[in-house]
Structure to design on (331 residues):
DNA sequence: GCGGTATTGTGCATTAGTAT
DNA sequence: ATACTAATGCACAATACCGC
C-alpha cells in the first residue's frame, strides 16, 4: 500500500520526482514535453498518501453556504485568495448591497485555505441536520445539533484532505484566529430602508494544549448564529454541495473560479465578463497585471481542468468573457 | 498613458522522514 | 495512527523593464 516509489522502467529513475527532475535528459521528446508541463504548473496538490477523507462510516458531503440575506457569498471572495494573509480590506459594491470584508489588525484576513475549516463546519452541520430531518420524518423526535463542533485535529485535516505534517498543527491556530476575526459587513439598501449587519466566519474557539508536551488535545469551535440559523432553523437552507476535489486545488484563483462556476453555472453554463470577475475576486492588483495572471491561470486548466467545470477564455473584439460549462454527470 | 513579460520576496504548503 | 521536524516548493503580489 505504501510502496509509492515505483521505479519507472523507461529511464532508470527511482521516483516520480526523479523523473520530473530529469526531464531534460529524457530521450523520448513526447514524454519530456509532458513532464515539462507537469513541472511548470501544479493545479492540484497530490492527495495525502492515505487518501481517505475520513475513517468514519461516511464523510459528510462537502457543502458550502451559498447565500446570506439573498446575497450570494459564493460569487464574491469573502477572504484573501493568496497564501499570505492580506491586511487591506475588500470592498464590494454590488447592485443591491455594499459588502466590506476586514481582517484582524494583527493576524490579517482569512485566506481561501483557512476557509476549509469553515467548509468542514458547514458540511458537518448540514449532514447532521439532514440526518435529524430524516428521523423526524419517521416520527422520532431528536435533539438539534450542538452549537459548537469539537473535531480532532486529525479528523479536520483528513476531511480537508491535507497531510498530517506538524506544520499544519501550528498553522491551525493562526487559521482559526483569522477566521474568527475576519468580519464581513453587509449593507443592504432597498426602496424602503437600509439594513446593516456584521458577521464573522466562525465564532469563538478554544484550543487546549497539554502543558508538558505542548500537544493540541482538544479544539472547540462555536458555530456563529447566522450559520446555525441558516442551516438548522430555516426549512430550506441555501447550501450547495461541492466536489471534494476542491480541497486539492492548489491555486486560490482556481478555487475561486470553481466556487463561482458552481454557483453561477450550476449544472448548465454561465458567462461572466472579465471585469466582473476582477471586481469579485477582491484582488489588489491593477487590472492589466491581474489580467495576465488570470490568463495563465485559466490556460493551466487545459492540462488539468477544474472538477466538473470547464473554463474558457473567449475574446469578442477587445472584450473578454469567461465561459463556465458544467462537464460533470448530468443527472 | 496602455499593453505585455521577467524578476524577486514573503509566508504558507508540502514532502520525506522520525518519534511516540 | 497521530504528532512533529527540517528542508524545500509555491502562489501571490510588488516591482522593474520593454515596446507601442
Amino acid at each position: 500500500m505504501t510502496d509509492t516509489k515505483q521505479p519507472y522502467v523507461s529511464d532508470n529513475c527511482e521516483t516520480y520526482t526523479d523523473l520530473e527532475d530529469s526531464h531534460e535528459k529524457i530521450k523520448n521528446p513526447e514524454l519530456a514535453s509532458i513532464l515539462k508541463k507537469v513541472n511548470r504548473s501544479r493545479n492540484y496538490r497530490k492527495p495525502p498518501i492515505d487518501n481517505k477523507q475520513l475513517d468514519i462510516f461516511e464523510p459528510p458531503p462537502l457543502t458550502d453556504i451559498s447565500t446570506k440575506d439573498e446575497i450570494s457569498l459564493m460569487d464574491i471572495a469573502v477572504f484573501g485568495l493568496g497564501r499570505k494573509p492580506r491586511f487591506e480590506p475588500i470592498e464590494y459594491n454590488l447592485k443591491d448591497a455594499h459588502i466590506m470584508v476586514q481582517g484582524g489588525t494583527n493576524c490579517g484576513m482569512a485566506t481561501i485555505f483557512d476557509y476549509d475549516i469553515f467548509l468542514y463546519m458547514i458540511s458537518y452541520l448540514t449532514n447532521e441536520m439532514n440526518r435529524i430531518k430524516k428521523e423526524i420524518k419517521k416520527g422520532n423526535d431528536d435533539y438539534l445539533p450542538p452549537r459548537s463542533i469539537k473535531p480532532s485535529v486529525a479528523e479536520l485535516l483528513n476531511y480537508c484532505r491535507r497531510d498530517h505534517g506538524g506544520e499544519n498543527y501550528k498553522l491551525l491556530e493562526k487559521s482559526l484566529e483569522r477566521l474568527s476575526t475576519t468580519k464581513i459587513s453587509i449593507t443592504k439598501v432597498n426602496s424602503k430602508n437600509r439594513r446593516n449587519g456584521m458577521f464573522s466566519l466562525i465564532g469563538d474557539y478554544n484550543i487546549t494544549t497539554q502543558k508538558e508536551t505542548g500537544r493540541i488535545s482538544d479544539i472547540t469551535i462555536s458555530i456563529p448564529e447566522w450559520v446555525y440559523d441558516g442551516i438548522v432553523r430555516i426549512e430550506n437552507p441555501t447550501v450547495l454541495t461541492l466536489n471534494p476535489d476542491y480541497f486539492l486545488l492548489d491555486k486560490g484563483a482556481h478555487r475561486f473560479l470553481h466556487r463561482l462556476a458552481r454557483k453561477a453555472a450550476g449544472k448548465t453554463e454561465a458567462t461572466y465578463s472579465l471585469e466582473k470577475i476582477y471586481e469579485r475576486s477582491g484582488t489588489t492588483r491593477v487590472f492589466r497585471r491581474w489580467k495576465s495572471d488570470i490568463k495563465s491561470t485559466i490556460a493551466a486548466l487545459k492540462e488539468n481542468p477544474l472538477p466538473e467545470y470547464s473554463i474558457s477564455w473567449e475574446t469578442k473584439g477587445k472584450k473578454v468573457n469567461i465561459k463556465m460549462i458544467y462537464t460533470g454527470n448530468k443527472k
